[in-house]
Amino acid sequence: MFTGLAFDTCTAPPLATMNAWRGTSPYGAIAVYVGGKNRGCAQPQLTASWVGAVAGSGWKLVPLYVGAQPPCQTGASPEKITADTAVSLGAADGADAVAKASALGMRSGSMLYLDMEAYNAADTACADAVLAYTQSFNRAVKARSYRPGFYGFASSSAAGIAKAAEAGAADLPEALWYAKYDGTADTTGSFPYSSTLFGGHRRAHQYQVNQRETYGGVTLTVDRNAWDAPVAVTG
Length: 235
Known about the structure:
The protein is an alpha/beta fold and 235 residues long. The protein has a single domain, classed as TIM Barrel (Alpha-Beta Barrel), CATH 3.20.20.80. Helices cover 27% and strands 27% of the residues. It has an 8-stranded mixed β-barrel with strand order 1-2-3-4-5-6-7-8, surrounded by 5 helices. α3 packs across α4. It is globular and about 50 Å long. The two termini are 14 Å apart.
């Protein structure tokens, strides 16, 4: 569990950068891309020893898994959901997410966030396939004693989860990390859905992207997040 500011950047920074930012930046957590066929950046730093050192210095870690993407998504993705493969892909990717996190030293009880990019929310067949995939992913994660979370866009992928939660659907994520670029570093007033959803420290808000910041003499380009949700269990 972590409450505060978190950042994410495509490639996990070197340990020296993390040490330079620790205590000099406003951030207390970093999101890292642990796996998935649609993960966009190489991760030469992201090893079990890096996780141990970063966590040992006081950082909290947010594992993010870029699994199969919506069938109606514009652009190419190496792995896409279809109506026929949604359940099987979700099960396989959920198992893989746990394996990847475990290999990095993130223990059972860790929240693993499934990264689902934007899609046309008006395409009901597409939304249904995404939900079926997500539910299957979540079942696989929970069966291995990890916890499923979800990252998505406020107007599409995250909205689909909120709609399903309102309808009382089963096998939904335990925490919702929503991308809404309003510059507001909170998880309450900016929350775009019913206030009854994902309460009790289960929300995160990506509120700005591509911000160039320098702390401890080291510069990174990061996305900014207000965090009030579970993270990885390490140590």
